Amino acid sequence: MTFERFKTIIETYRKFEQDLSDLYDLGIDFYEGKYKLMSHAEEILSESMQSHYNHYGWEWISWFIWENDYGQRKLEAWDADKNLTAQTLEELHQMLEKEYKNG
Questions:
Q1: Which residues pair with 78 in a beta bridge?
Q2: 10: β partners
Q3: Is the dihedral of CA 97, 3, 5, 62 positive or negative?
């Protein structure tokens, strides 16, 4: 997957997530309410990423988005050679392409 496509998918998901969060703040729940749009969006993201990257690649993407807040929390991640990795979206993409690409 090209970096531009990867970036577009991640940034679009982030905007969607923020929009739902803003609606939640207004009292409209798309997380656990009748219409669980967030669950559907997460599944779409997961399936689209796993069509390009293996299970471990998806775990890195999940970590970057939810645990590291799209890189904003500045959590450190290290590769097997003890190198700092996946600190930015571009670094994450490079690692995924090198280590976790399907096929």
A1: 84
A2: none
A3: positive
